[in-house]
Amino acid sequence: MRERTSPDFIEAIARGFDVVRTFDGAQSQTLAEVAQSSGLARPTARRILITLQQVGYVVVDGGRFELTPRVLELGVAYFSGVDFWQAAMPRLRALVHHTNESSSIAQLDGSDVVYVARVAVPKLVTLSVAVGTRFPAAQTSLGKVLLSSLSHEEVDAVLATPSRSGVEPTWHPSRDELDAVLAQVRSQGWAISDQQLAPAIRSVAAPIRRADGTVFAAMNVNAHAAETSIERLQDEHLPHLLRAAADLSVDHALRSRIPAEIA
């Protein structure tokens, strides 16, 4: 008997996955083989197989059942979605190796950026950063890149959302000042933040794009102002950052094609 950990547990769905897993290493199976491998009664196994057949995950030929390529969609949904950030880690580590500075990837959530991947170098820090950390977007290089990809009306809507970061930034730009900064970021394709979030925090960021060119995340190199100058960020670290962000954009485009190729 399967242990139920919640009153909301749906046994029928769990049994369906049990049936799918019985095909591991088996190209096709009879009803009796599926029932035996899954530990289910034959009538139960039969109903599940018929259901899977009707939704396109199983075909039957001469009394033998086979999985269809549609089953791959179950794995692809994870592979092309949540797992992208784990797959991005080698790119982050390579960037950190080249710069000897910490690097992060973030996405926009309301008026904040939220860190979704990070590789840190032990150095002087004035703010603690980890996956899940959020900061006000307008004061970070990551946020400037993400905001610059939005329309004026979209930026209005974003900025109208109160920050949930709990961080009081050092820079409080007027809307005209911020618009001028975003226009420059949009033109040059990258952004700098020089102690605008907190004292001694300096960073440069670049966009990560979907296959259609839209920006969905940003990647940065961040440093301590006492150790790394703005000139070094731009002249030495920015070229490595731009290459890494472009490579991640290509990675994402390739991964996004997988469901269409399967279909």
Rg from alpha-carbon coordinates: 24 Å
- Terminal CA distance reads 37 Å
Total strands: the figure is 9
Report the structural category: alpha+beta
H/I helix tally: 11
Q: Poorly predicted ranges (pLDDT <50, ≥5 residues)?
A: 259-263
Portion in strands:
15-25%
Looking across the biggest beta sheet, what order are the strands in? 6-5-4-9-8-7
Largest sheet, strands/sense/barrel: 6 strands, antiparallel
Order of helices and strands: HEHHEEHHHEEEHHHEEEHH
Helicity range of the residues? 40-55%
Basic shape: elongated
Mean pLDDT over the residues: 87
Describe this structure in words.
With 263 residues, the chain is of the alpha+beta class. Helix content is 44%, strand content 20%. It contains eleven helices and nine strands. It has helices at residues 11-21, 31-38, 42-54, 72-79, 84-87, 89-99, 141-148, 152-159, 175-188, 230-256, 258-262, and strands at 29-30, 58-61, 64-67, 102-109, 112-119, 134-136, 191-194, 201-209, 215-224. A hairpin with a 2-residue loop joins strand 4 (102-109) and strand 5. The two termini are 37 Å apart. The relative contact order is 0.12. The model is unreliable at 259-263 (pLDDT under 50).
